[in-house]
Design goal:
heterodimer; A: alpha/beta; 37% helix; 12% strand; B: 16 strands
C-alpha cells in the first residue's frame, strides 16, 4: 500500500478497499520504523493524525469526500498548522506551537486530508542539503551517507522512502526541485503567486513559493489543484480562479498528437549554458537520455540562450538575504520562540537571543542582507540585483517566443556526501544554479526523475514553463512518466 | 544682529479607519492591553499585511484637499517600504512605511498669522503604520508591551521649512488640524495621540544658508509646540552667540521644565535600511477613484473662508474663526441662512464661543442650536429685545436649557418665554415718552449741562432712562424721544 500513488490511494478509499485510518497507520508505522535513520520528520503526532483520519473515513462513508479526503500528507515544517509545533528547522522556533493554520494547511484540512507530520528542513529554508536544520540533517534514502538536498529535504526524503504518499514544500531558489531531483521524486514550484504564502514562514518574500513533492506528475497535479488559488490574505497571491491541474494530463500537446507521439508539436528549449561547465557527466548523460525520450514522444529540441543566467546566483544571493534579513527580524525573543536565558538589558537580550537562536547559515545570510541594504551599498547591490532580475525575466520572455518549455538538469550533480560542502558556502550555493532563474523570474518549474547517475543516485530533469502553464508542464511530465518508469523506482528498503 | 528662525513640521495624523492599515483588528482607543492585536499585528511567523483601502482613500482625500482639489500631487503608483529597526513595541522588527514613492507629493496649506496670509508648502504625505506602546512603569523593573496601537494607520505629513516663528508653526499646525478633521480623515484627538507634531528648528542670519536643525519629537498640544519652539530657538541663539555650534540631533520637550533635551545625536542615528516591502504590491490609484473621492470632498476651508469674506462682508479674522472647524462653519451657515450673517458671526465668535470655551464643548454639542440663535438674533434685529438683554439674560437662559433641541416649531414657546419673563424691549413710544419725561424732571442738572453743550450729559440721561426701564428700553427709541424733548 505504501508504494501506491495518491491517485491510486484515492481510488482505493473511494471504493472502500482501504480506510484513511488504515493508510495513516501504515505510514505512521513506516515513519516509526525508518525516521530514526532518515530524520525526515521533526514532529509526528499519531493521535492528531488518526483523529483527522477517522473524520475523513466518516466523511467518505457519508459520500462527502473529495479526491483527497483521507489521504495523509506530510507538511514541510515551514507551514503553520494550528496546535502543531512549527519550527522552521530552527532553535528559534523549537518551542513554537502555531495558533493558526496556513492557507495551504486550511485547504488540505478542508479537503479532508490527514496531516501526517511536519518534515525536517534547512533552517528557515536556507540551505541546499538539509544540513542547516537545528534538528540535524536528513539522510538521503538512496544512500544514508548522502544529503537529500534542501531545503525541503525532509519532505523529499519522506516521499522517496514511502513514509508519506506526498508532501508539501517551498521553493525560494530550488528548495522543492533540487531535493526532488536528489531523492528521485517529482516536485513542482508553481508560478509565483499561485499558492498563498499566508502562514508559510517567510524566507525571501518575493521568491518564496509553495508547492508539492510527490511520486508522479499526476499526484503533483492533484495536490496542486487543492493548494493553489486566490487568497485575500496574501497581496502577492494571484487573483485567478482555482484550476484543476489534472485537466490536461492525458491530452496530447497539440490536437494532432497521436497516442505514440503525444508531445508532437512541443518545442523544448535547451539553455546552452546549462549543459556546459560544472555539469557532472553522469547527470548530463541521464538528462540527454531523457530528452531523447521526449523527442521520441514527438517533442522537438531547440537550443536557446539565457544570456544573463550566469548572473542569477549572485543576484539571488543579494535579493534573498536582503529580504531575509528583514523577514527574520521578528524573531527577537520578545513575543514567542526562543529567548536567551540570561541577559543584562534589552540590547543584550536581542544579541544573545539571536546569536543563540539562529544557526550559522541563517546568521551569514542576515549579515549579507543587512550589508546590501545598508546606506551607501543599497544602489550598488540591491538595486543592481533587481535590475539583473528584470533582465533574467526578459531573457525568459524572449526564449519562450521560440519554445514552449525549457529543460535541463535540475542540479549539477547527484546527491553529495553529508558534510562535503558545509564549509564552502559558494560550492553549496552553486547547487541551485539551474533552479534559481525560475524564482527570479517568478516562473513555474518542476523536477522529475529521469535516471540514475554515479552511485546509483537519482538524477532529475528540470522543466521551466511560461507563467501559468503548470497544467501543460504537468501534462508533458505525465506523458514522459507514462513512457518511462524512473519515477516508480524506490530506494532500497 | 538679527536671527531668523526656520521651522519645518512633520505631523502624524491617525487616519479614522475602523480597522488597522494592514490587518482587520480594531483601531478603537482605550481597550485593555493587547486585546486589539491580531496575528498580523503581533507579527506571528507567516502572517502577511493586506493594505486597508480606507486608509489609501483618506490619503487621496488629503492630497486633493491640500492641492485645491487638483490631483497632480497624488502619485498614481506609490510603494510601501520597510523601515528596519529593533524595538520591543515594533513586532516585525520593521515598520511598513513609504519612502521613495509616497502617496502624496506636494501641496500647500494656507495659514493666517501676524495678520496676514502665508502659504506653507508641503513636501509630501505618506502612509505608514504606528508602533505599539512600551509601558515602563508598574512592571517591577520590566517593561510592558501593549500592541493595540501597532498597525494603526498614520498619514505622515511633511512640510517644507517655510515657517519663521513659533506663531506661524502653531498657525500651521492648527490649520492642518482643522483640515484633517474638516475632510473627515482624522478625529484630531491630540490627548489620545491622533495628531502629533515633530518640529525641525534651526536659526540663521537673514540671507544666510540654512542652519543646522534639531528635531523636537512628539509634541501633542499646540501650547507645547509653541513653548518647545520658543525655548529651542532661544537655546540655539544663546548657544551660537556664546560661540558654540549646533549639532544635528533629536530632542524631547519636557513640559514640566519647559526645556528641550537631546535624545540622540546624528551619530547615533539608525540606518533604517529602507527597501520596498515585497509582501505588498505598489498602490495603484486610477482616475476613477480620484474623481469619486473629489466629488465626495466638501468645500474646503480656504475657499469657504474667502467666500464668507466676500459674500457676507466678514473680516478676515471672523471668517478665519468661522472656518476653524467644519462644525463651526456648518453652524454658521445654518444661522446665517436664517438671520443677519454679520450679526451671526459676531454672536458665534463672541458670546457663544466664550460659553463653549468655558464649558469645553464642541459647537456640535452647543445647548443653543443654530435655529435658536438665529431666532434670538432676529429678535434683536426687529427690536423685540435689546442686545444688552440678549447678552446678559436671554442667551444664558437659552443655554441653560430653555430650548434644548428646539426647532422652528418651538418658536411660539420662545416668544412665550420672552413674554412670561418680561424681557421684551420697550419700544412703545407712549411708554418711553412717559419715562423720558420723568427722567428729565428728575435730572435738571444734566439737562442744564447738556444745553450748555456737554454731550456727555446726554449719555447720562440715556443711561437714566435705560435704568428706569430696567434695561428693556429700546435704546434707539429712548435716544430719539430724548432728543426730541430736548429740542435738538
Amino acid at each position: 500500500m505504501h508504494n501506491a500513488t495518491v491517485s491510486e490511494l484515492s481510488a482505493a478509499l473511494a471504493a472502500g478497499k482501504t480506510s484513511s485510518v488504515e493508510l495513516t497507520r501504515t505510514f505512521l508505522d513506516r515513519i516509526g520504523l525508518m525516521n530514526g535513520a532518515l530524520n525526515a520528520f521533526v514532529t509526528v503526532d499519531a493521535e492528531k493524525s488518526l483523529a483527522q483520519a477517522r473524520a475523513a473515513d466518516a466523511r467518505i462513508a457519508a459520500h462527502g469526500g473529495t479526491r483527497l479526503t483521507g489521504i495523509p500528507i506530510a507538511h514541510k515544517d515551514i507551514f503553520c498548522a494550528q496546535d502543531w509545533l512549527t519550527t522552521c528547522g530552527s532553535k528559534m522556533l523549537a518551542n513554537f506551537v502555531s495558533p493558526y493554520d496556513a492557507h495551504v494547511i486550511e485547504r488540505f484540512n478542508a479537503a479532508g486530508c490527514v496531516i501526517l507530520g511536519k518534515t525536517n528542513m534547512d533552517e528557515f529554508a536556507m540551505g541546499s542539503s538539509n544540513e542547516t536544520s537545528f534538528f540535524g540533517p536528513v539522510k538521503n534514502p538512496w544512500n544514508l551517507t548522502c544529503v537529500p538536498g534542501g531545503s525541503s529535504g525532509g519532505s523529499a526524503a519522506a516521499v522517496a522512502a514511502r513514509l508519506a504518499p506526498a508532501a508539501t514544500g517551498t521553493d525560494t531558489g530550488g528548495s522543492i526541485r533540487q531535493p526532488a531531483a536528489l531523492t528521485g521524486v517529482t516536485g513542482i514550484k508553481p508560478t509565483y503567486g499561485r499558492v498563498s504564502r499566508y502562514g508559510m514562514i517567510a524566507f525571501a518574500s518575493s521568491l518564496d513559493q509553495g508547492g508539492v513533492l510527490a511520486r508522479s506528475a499526476e499526484d503533483a497535479a492533484l495536490l496542486l489543484s487543492e493548494m493553489a488559488g486566490a487568497d485575500a490574505r496574501d497581496s502577492t497571491c494571484l487573483d485567478m480562479p482555482r484550476e484543476d491541474y489534472t485537466r490536461e494530463l492525458r491530452q496530447p500537446w497539440r490536437p494532432e498528437g497521436s497516442k505514440l507521439r503525444p508531445l508532437q508539436g512541443l518545442r523544448i528549449g535547451l539553455p546552452r549554458a546549462h549543459f556546459g561547465e560544472g555539469l557532472a557527466p553522469d547527470v548530463d548523460a541521464a538528462v540527454r537520455a531523457a530528452l531523447a525520450e521526449f523527442e521520441k514522444l514527438g517533442a522537438a529540441l531547440v537550443d536557446i540562450d539565457l544570456p544573463n543566467a550566469a548572473l542569477s546566483v549572485p543576484a539571488y544571493y543579494v535579493i534573498a538575504p536582503a529580504e531575509a534579513s528583514s523577514n527574520l527580524s521578528r524573531f527577537d525573543g520578545v513575543r514567542y520562540g526562543y529567548r536567551a536565558p540570561q541577559y543584562t538589558d534589552l540590547l543584550d537580550m536581542y544579541r544573545k537571543t539571536r546569536s543563540q537562536g539562529f544557526g550559522a547559515e541563517v546568521k551569514r545570510r542576515i549579515l549579507i542582507g543587512t550589508y546590501v541594504l545598508s546606506h551607501g551599498y543599497y544602489d550598488a547591490y540591491y538595486l543592481q540585483a533587481q535590475r539583473i532580475r528584470r533582465l533574467i525575466a526578459q531573457d525568459f520572455e524572449a526564449a519562450f517566443k521560440n519554445c514552449d518549455l525549457i529543460a535541463g538538469p535540475t542540479s549539477p550533480t547527484v546527491a553529495f556526501k553529508l558534510g562535503a560542502k558545509v564549509s564552502d558556502p559558494v560550492q553549496m550555493y552553486l547547487n541551485d544554479i539551474y533552479t534559481i532563474p525560475a524564482n527570479l523570474a517568478g516562473l513555474p518549474g518542476m523536477s522529475m526523475p529521469c535516471g540514475f547517475g554515479a552511485g546509483g543516485l537519482p538524477v532529475g530533469l528540470h522543466v521551466v514553463g511560461n507563467y501559468y502553464s503548470e497544467a501543460r508542464m504537468l501534462s508533458a511530465a505525465h506523458h514522459f512518466q507514462q513512457a518511462t518508469d524512473w519515477h516508480t523506482k524506490a530506494p532500497p528498503a | 544682529m538679527e536671527w531668523e528662525t526656520v521651522i519645518g513640521i512633520e505631523t502624524h495624523a491617525q487616519l479614522s479607519t475602523l480597522s488597522k492599515i494592514f490587518s482587520g483588528a480594531s483601531t478603537a482607543f482605550g481597550a485593555a492591553p493587547n486585546t486589539q492585536a491580531c496575528g498580523v499585528d503581533i507579527a506571528l511567523p507567516g502572517v502577511l499585511p493586506v493594505v486597508n483601502r480606507g486608509a489609501v482613500e483618506r490619503a487621496i482625500r488629503f492630497g486633493l484637499a491640500v492641492n485645491g482639489k487638483r490631483a497632480d500631487n497624488i502619485c498614481r503608483r506609490s510603494v510601501f517600504a520597510r523601515k528596519n529597526y529593533f524595538y520591543p513595541d515594533l513586532p516585525k522588527g520593521y515598520q511598513i512605511s513609504q519612502y521613495e514613492l509616497p502617496i502624496v507629493s506636494g501641496g500647500s496649506v494656507l495659514i493666517v498669522a501676524s495678520g496676514g496670509e502665508k502659504t506653507i508648502r508641503l513636501t509630501r504625505a505618506h502612509l505608514e503604520e504606528d508602533a505599539g506602546k512600551s509601558l515602563h512603569e508598574d512592571f517591577h523593573g520590566m517593561s510592558g508591551i501593549d500592541l493595540n496601537r501597532a498597525g494603526t494607520p498614520l498619514l505622515e505629513i511633511v512640510s517644507e521649512p517655510d515657517m519663521r516663528s513659533a506663531e506661524e508653526a502653531v498657525a500651521y499646525a492648527k490649520a492642518l488640524h482643522a483640515l484633517v478633521r474638516w475632510i473627515g480623515i482624522c478625529d484630531g484627538n491630540m490627548q489620545e495621540g491622533s495628531f502629533r507634531c515633530d518640529a525641525n528648528v534651526s536659526v540663521r542670519r537673514p540671507g544666510a544658508p540654512l542652519g543646522t536643525r534639531r528635531e523636537i519629537k512628539n509634541l501633542n498640544s499646540f501650547r507645547f509646540l509653541q513653548q518647545a519652539i520658543e525655548y529651542e530657538v532661544r537655546w540655539q541663539i544663546d548657544t551660537l552667540e556664546s560661540g558654540g555650534t549646533i549639532k544635528q540631533a533629536t530632542v524631547l520637550f519636557d513640559s514640566d521644565t519647559g526645556k528641550t533635551r537631546e535624545m540622540r545625536s546624528k551619530e547615533d542615528a539608525h540606518d533604517y535600511r529602507y527597501f520596498p516591502d515585497p509582501d505588498l504590491l505598489p498602490v495603484a490609484i486610477d482616475e476613477e477613484w480620484i474623481n469619486r473621492v473629489r466629488e465626495e470632498l466638501p468645500e474646503l476651508p480656504e475657499s469657504m473662508r474667502h467666500r464668507f469674506e466676500t459674500q457676507y462682508k466678514l473680516s478676515v479674522y471672523d471668517a478665519q474663526l468661522l472656518t476653524a472647524s467644519y462644525e463651526v462653519a456648518m453652524y454658521f451657515k445654518d444661522v446665517a441662512a436664517q438671520a443677519d450673517p454679520k450679526l451671526a458671526a459676531n454672536w458665534i465668535n463672541g458670546e457663544l464661543a466664550n460659553r463653549l470655551n468655558e464649558f469645553n464643548l464642541p459647537i456640535g454639542e452647543s445647548p443653543v442650536s443654530a435655529a435658536t440663535l438665529a431666532w434670538m438674533i432676529n429678535r434683536i434685529a426687529d427690536g423685540t429685545i435689546s442686545g444688552k438683554i440678549a447678552k446678559e439674560r436671554v442667551l444664558g437662559d437659552l443655554w441653560e436649557g430653555m430650548n434644548v433641541g428646539l426647532g422652528k416649531a418651538d418658536l411660539p414657546t420662545l416668544s412665550a418665554y420672552l413674554e412670561a419673563n418680561g424681557l421684551a424691549q420697550i419700544s412703545d413710544s407712549a411708554e418711553i415718552e412717559k419715562i423720558v419725561d420723568q427722567v428729565l424732571a428728575a435730572n435738571p442738572k444734566s439737562v442744564e449741562e447738556f444745553r450748555a453743550g456737554k454731550e456727555k450729559a446726554f449719555n447720562a440721561l440715556v443711561g437714566q432712562a435705560m435704568k428706569a426701564t430696567r434695561g428693556k428700553g429700546n435704546p434707539a427709541a429712548i435716544n430719539g424721544i430724548l432728543r426730541r424733548r430736548l429740542g435738538v
